[in-house]
Write a structure and sequence with these properties.
The complex is a heterodimer of chains A (255) and B (114).
Chain A: E1 14-23, E2 34-40, E3 45-51, E4 55-62, E5 67-75, E6 81-88, H1 104-116, E7 121-122, H2 133-157, E8 160-163, E9 169-172, E10 179-183, E11 186-195, H3 201-214, H4 216-222, E12 224-227, E13 233-234, H5 244-254
Antiparallel strand pairs in A: 1-2, 1-6, 2-3, 3-4, 4-5, 7-13, 8-9, 9-10, 10-11, 11-12
Helix pairs in contact in A: 1-5, 2-3, 3-4
Chain B: E1 4-8, E2 16-20, E3 26-28, E4 37-44, E5 48-55, H1 59-74, E6 78-84, E7 87-92, E8 102-106, E9 111-113
Parallel strand pairs in B: 4-8
Antiparallel strand pairs in B: 1-2, 3-5, 4-5, 6-7, 6-8
Classes of the chains: A alpha+beta (255), B mainly beta (114).
Chain lengths: 255, 114
């Protein structure tokens, strides 16, 4: 079986391209041969080639069975070569694949939409429903202290943030959770202060919240200090930070 | 016989003392007091918090509330005014204010390094 398949000679359902390999200092008979890359979407078989400095190999690969069958192996010691790729259409004419044209308005809409989503998602644990009367009463109290908006944030995020007189922000968790300290948005340490006794988690949070607001120095004196937590930011997303007018102009120029 | 509140006074211990609720005052479950009433809210382990209301138009109830306020401060609890003029907030109190809407007592001395 010849490894040199003429583009478009296979049955319908093929998408393929042809690589023409030019050995730059070739004196043998296999110079300027054709190697086809054929992907058959109906039979899940494909032919692929590998090129290296010392050899050129061609294989058939059956995607359905995962088997690979050598189709030719050509040793070319230390040969330089260049590859020229040509795309084929099913009817045998050479034609590159036509990229799908997304309308300018749609491209711009996607950019605007991507900018409206948050840049990162941090792991937060919403507060579960109170399962005892004492906890329910404690949450009523916390709601009075924080106000409705602040309380909703607490339920959603699972913690309360408070800016102390020093300018540092304390992230307080219910129960025996560590209090995380942020300085200009960067976590710098974790402080462990608990309310001893059989108090509810939210009562413990209230006590620490009040102490930080009114006597930050005392809170820090009581605390066991731990190193800063690892960043909890996940899924940081990159995006084109250029001004929208500039992006729009470049899209128009490209269209 | 008057009602009372259990207050834990020793850090890390189980010892509690009882603070009496003077007779004209009464215990409620609501967190928002009726109009022209104030509420003393004492955080404790048994109930979560005890809520005691006084009528700010009644001299006898104001006197009883002040007596209880001072008693709780002597036992080591710290008083904070919750909210003011319908807004959220928390201010430390140094003395009893008969016009306060809600006063919360916190067992600050029970806080410690974990």
């Amino acid at each position: 079986m010849s490894p040199y398949i003429t583009c478009g000679s296979s049955s319908s359902g093929l998408t393929s391209y042809q690589d023409k390999i030019f050995f730059n200092s070739d004196t043998t008979t296999i110079s300027n041969k054709y190697f086809n890359k054929i992907v058959n979407t109906t039979t899940s078989t494909s032919l692929y080639e590998t090129y290296c400095s010392s050899c050129v190999s061609a294989y058939y690969h059956d995607d359905s069975t995962g088997t690979t069958m050598p189709w030719g192996n050509y040793i070319k010691a230390a040969q330089d070569y260049t590859i020229k790729r040509s795309w084929c259409s099913e009817d045998g004419y050479y034609a590159p694949p036509v990229p799908v044209q997304i309308p300018l308005s749609e491209q711009f809409r996607r950019i605007l939409q991507s900018r409206q989503t948050p840049l990162f998602i941090s792991s937060r644990t919403p507060i579960r429903a109170a399962d005892e009367e004492r906890e329910l009463r404690a949450r009523q109290t916390l709601r009075k202290i924080l106000g409705d908006d602040g309380f909703q944030r607490f339920l959603r995020n699972g913690f309360v943030s408070v800016r102390a007189n020093s300018g540092k922000v304390y992230q307080i968790y219910p129960g025996h959770g560590m209090t995380v300290v942020y300085d200009r948005g960067t976590p710098i340490e974790k402080l462990c202060v608990v309310l001893r006794g059989d108090f509810t988690p939210t009562d413990s949070l209230i006590t620490r919240y009040v102490m930080i607001m009114h006597d930050e120095a005392r809170f820090r004196t009581l605390a066991n200090v731990w190193s800063a937590p690892a960043k909890r930011i996940t899924g940081l997303r990159k995006f084109d930070a250029r001004p929208l007018t500039q992006i729009f102009q470049s899209l128009k120029d490209a269209a | 016989m008057s009602d009372f509140v259990d207050v834990q006074v020793i850090n890390g211990g189980t010892l509690t003392v009882q603070v009496a609720i003077p007779k004209p005052l009464r215990v409620v479950d609501e967190i928002t007091p009726p109009p022209n009433h104030g509420i003393l809210q004492i955080m404790n382990q048994k109930d979560g918090d005890k809520r005691v209301v006084w009528d700010s138009n009644s001299l006898a109830e104001i006197r009883a509330a002040k007596e209880m306020f001072d008693d709780l401060v002597r036992k080591g609890l710290e008083p904070y005014r919750v909210g003011h003029g319908g807004k959220a907030g928390l201010d430390k109190m140094s003395e009893f204010d008969p016009m306060a809407e809600q006063v919360m007592f916190l067992p600050m001395k029970l806080a410690g390094g974990g």
